[in-house]
Protein 1
Amino acid sequence: MSEVPALSIQNLSKTYNNGFSALKNVSLTVPQGGFFALLGPNGAGKSTMIGIVSSLFKPTNGSVHIFGTDLLENPSVAKQYLGVVPQEFNFNQFEKVQDILITQAGYFGISAKEAKPRAERLLKALGLWDKRNNMSRELSGGMKRRLMIARALIHKPKLLILDEPTAGVDIELRRSMWEFMQQINIEENTTIILTTHYLEEAEQLCKRIAILDHGEIRINTEMKDLLAQLSVETFVLDLTQPLTHPLVIDKVTAIVQPDEMTLEVTLTEGESLNCVFEQLTKLGIEVGSMRNKSNRLEELFMRLVDKNIQSEDSMKEAGL
């Protein structure tokens, strides 16, 4: 018998009182375990979907099941499985850090005696233990973001939704947060749904991806299968010595020289980066380092969004 999905959304629609249709008959299944990326441009419907799953909004039509439990029929049971880290800070700014976790645990029927060691473990893991007796308003933005994660995990949910969890967080802190999330995912088999504007995070962490746009699911597939669709890739080559003359390289789609120390090489499927390096070596040009000009997922994402915008513009021009 197949495993019950962590999240099952069927024919979900949401139309607000002003007539705006935020979700249009959306169906989505998130399997247990691993990271799942839910991406989309601003206004795509992600916040509405998360709001419905976390019981902030009621859907116009459709159903939501969390680990097989109907959210609309048994919300108290379904929400035991769920932890949510929203974009906005929504805790009591005048409550102590540790007390915020213990209070949250109480909402799930967890006693203070049981909650305290859980809170200690989470605060230590997220680098907040030294701040446990501070008022939450005294924390930096990055610390507040980590406190939100600790609060969402205090009742040991089987499904964790992270809505832009690293927004405004510096690179080093982002890396440590993701290491902790990966640990939670592996050690406790917590399913994690991630929305983020840092698309490199989604590419590195998530095995599956769904892209939502204008209230509809445009893509729902394995990350590796989506990235395999990318036929064009641009590499940035940092040179060790300045290049003072225009360069011509055979068997590449395009080569651009932004400045005397940099080359941008665009390759399509079948073109070899090794061939580029061989030609540069023959010309006595040494490359110090190399990187992708843009994240691969970002490139695909922007193509999808641009395609949909162009399609809408064409419909408007046709009077449809």
Protein 2
Amino acid sequence: MPEPILELAGLTKVFPGGFKALDNVDLTINRGEIFALLGPNGAGKTTLIGAVCGLVRPTSGTIRAFGQDTKSDWRQARARIGLVPQELSTDMFEPVLHAVEYSRGLFGLAPDPARIEEILRSLSLWDKRNNRIMELSGGMKRRVLIAKAMAHEPDLLFLDEPTAGVDVELRKDMWHQIDAMRARGVTVILTTHYIEEAEEMADRVGIIRGGKILMVDQKDAMMARLGRTEAHVMLAQPLDTLPPAIAAFPVELKEGGRSLCYRGGDGTGKGREEVAELTKALIASGIDYVGIDVRESSLEDIFVSLLGDEEEQAA
């Protein structure tokens, strides 16, 4: 059985003026996992993180971290939680080494130069340790935020848009760093606009919109359950209508009858099998084709589809 490290029950936050940023959120995070929270701007991701980290006071609901109610034991719980904020909020005139050492001291931990060096080296910051933060690139500044969050050795680490504004090469490098954190036993919760980031790293994915959790599931299970296969068949000659043997498949004519679009399957490989049957049916019906393009749904396709369904229901 998975061991819960964070449990949210009925978590709600209503700001002055009536804006409801979180709406009765129930969520359990298990020890040692990487959990990706996906949602559009204003969905409530940062408010949720702020509530757990003590930066936002919930209107109602409970937060239990490490088996303790954070309302009564907030100091002890907060000492075990790290946060890499979305904004670059740090003293830009500080040298990197001093900033990271100071962050460790804030949580009452004894100095540990060897551990600080290990963190800085793992983030390729050791050679920059004496540089002032303002002298660093945007990607390196974000690495400093991660180093500061890791300095007090948290068991639970929040990464709020950790690779925003970072180029692709640095982003992939940071994915490796996040995976290394998990290998050391750190539970990681990240919010991201880069859905391929969640697809690459996350064990489970949650989708939030309008302060409500729409879905939480294992990434692979979500893709298997909601994924689809799409195939485009380029026909040698255009068709006006489909013969019954072809119309029995989930297909439609496109481009004035010059291509056939298939959408079906369930993300488990069934779609590809059906596409193979479709090509056999085309040949048996005497319909020639000159090319075929097959693709599976990505996590991004599922995410966009879910949000679109939610908008239609709200309309």
